[in-house]
Specification:
This protein has 197 residues and is α/β, with parallel strands linked by helices. It has 6 helices and 6 strands; from the N terminus they run ββαβααβαβαβα. α1 runs parallel beside α6. The structure holds magnesium ion and zinc ion. The site of magnesium ion has 7 residues, from loops.
Length: 197
């Protein structure tokens, strides 16, 4: 049996929900600045515009779901329990900001490195679409109506493979490679609002 993604469901979340859209957010590089294997509040620096984007998306009828590769668990940099504790904190901050997250889907695996138990080729590590497909099953998400924001091509590949309707490559630092079409989060929200009307 294929290894499954992990899921942290927000303690405030209600039922499975109806067949509506979700805003899927990569974590490092979209929600918080990617300093590499961030796993503590003190290492967390929020990306400008993330709470506005999330509040705006909720107002448009999207549920918020984080989808994050967490090879730091496979590599033994932090345990799954530490990751869950940190996720609990992240969700609490979003709640205080009026931007409730429904869940954080995470891939604890790595194909070649780390602890033997988690050293596997899985179907959840992005660019594979497993986390998005599992979120869709669990929470009744209509993927075609959904939106994904990532900071790497592998995030967008996962979205594309899952059939997510709209994909944005975000640039949290504002350092945009001239080849890449990257959006800051305020521009993502404007575009979502534009397409909704
Ligand atoms: Mg990222
Ligand atoms: Zn995985």
């Amino acid at each position: 049996m294929a290894p499954h993604p992990g899921v942290f469901i927000d303690p405030r979340a209600g039922g499975a929900g109806s067949d509506g859209p979700a805003l899927f957010l990569d974590r490092d590089g979209v929600i918080n600045i990617d300093h590499g294997y961030v796993s503590t509040p003190s290492a967390t620096q929020w990306v400008d515009g993330i709470f506005d984007l999330c509040r705006g998306a909720i107002a448009l009828g999207y549920r918020l779901i984080v989808v994050t590769n967490q090879a730091g668990i496979a590599r033994g940099y932090y345990t799954e329990a530490q990751f869950l504790k940190y996720s609990h904190w992240v969700h609490a901050v979003f709640h205080e900001q009026g931007a409730d997250l429904l869940a954080t889907m995470y891939c604890p695996h790595h194909p070649t490195a780390g602890l033997e138990r988690l050293r596997v080729i899985c179907s959840c590590r992005k660019p594979a679409p497993g986390m998005l497909l599992e979120a869709s099953r669990r929470f009744n998400v209509n993927l075609a109506l959904s939106v994904l924001v990532g900071d790497k091509p592998s995030d967008l590949e996962a979205g594309s493979a899952a059939g997510v309707g709209r994909l944005y490559l975000a640039s949290p630092t504002g350092m945009v490679d001239s080849q890449a079409k990257a959006w800051d989060l305020a521009a993502v929200l404007s575009d979502m609002q534009c397409k909704a009307t």
